[in-house]
Amino acid sequence: MGILLASLWLTMGCTPAERDSAQAQPSGRGRSQEEGDRPIIVDVAIAEAQTRGRELNYSGTTQPLQRVSLRARSDGQLLNLNADVGDPVFQGQILAEVEDTLLLSELAASESEVSVRQAEVEEARNESIEAQFRVAELQAELEQAQVDSRRLKDLAGEGAVPRRDAELAQTRVRTLEQQLQSAQEQVRIRDRAITSAQQRVGAQEALVDGVRQRLSYTDVSSPLNAVVLERLLEPGDIVQTGDIILELGDFSEVEVRIEIPDRDRSQISLGQSVDVRLDAFPNQAFSGQVSRIFPNADPVARLIPVQITLRNPQVPDGQLGGGLLARVSLNSSSQQVVMVPAQALELSTSDSDTIFIVEGNDNETTVSARPVELGEQEDGQVEILSGLAPGEQFIVRSDRPLQDGQTVRRSVLSENNSENNSDNN
What we know:
36% strand; alpha+beta; five-stranded mixed barrel; 23 strands
């Protein structure tokens, strides 16, 4: 049985004398003492859950899929700037040129230094070759000296030559061995000198590559297909590394950022289709999709950022741009909600959102004031998010303001659980 509320005034459930008294006396705190003692007449209804879907509406602002700040990567004077606000640009297109005179001079000096380092490598290699030749000569002399020393030693043992000759031959062997060790050490020194010189060449070549890389930075090119959003410098300006020259935006897709209350989070999912309308094009409707739901809500406002993406459609003057007011709407899934007449929330003397609950089916009973959380309002009905459950009895109308714990009398128009159950049976 739905909530049936008659349009007749509550006093129909009263005696004629009570109705005359009610018409003659104002309601509220100015009542007479006799009226204050009279039971309060109320209409009671039973809360029921209703299945309803609702349209969720939010507003946001259009923005490009990607926004890029095109920055200078070298110092110097800005010579050329080949794009202005609103111009379409393409990936790899050179949009600006920075002076490169100083870098060209630095490159020439660096390349000259590479030649010097390479000459040092060649010199070290020549010295190493000479040292290797000397080692080979000493090895040959040592081998011959060793043969002569053995022969003279044998002859001295036979008495054919003086022993002194054999001793001199042995001394020469030891001298050549020392000279050979020294020559071999010189070869190792020369080899280390070659390695060191080669490392210096490599370091200098790296410097040259760095200068060449910096020279390439004097041509500033677009990293993507985009539209120029802002031009911050002009030809002739002196720029430093990191200065923003142009702001670019990729409008192949348009994003709309909205913020939803946390209580609507369950109604939105990734990939969900939404309708988008723009004030700039009131006669056109656009279709978008939920592309991102951010994990963190604002801890104060309890709002969750949600990103809507739509393909950039053709509009009368080309494509959609950024900064346009967008209105996003979607239909939520059907859910069970409790709706009450708005007047049921106007009976309390306090400023908070309060509804009055009655228990039992007695003709006279006491009321309990209960705070409630409100949702949307529609056609004189208010959604109760919390504080009132289906099946509970609440007061719809009263002939006087109510307070917690007051005694009331049901009107003849009131619903009760026993009647509700009998009707259902």
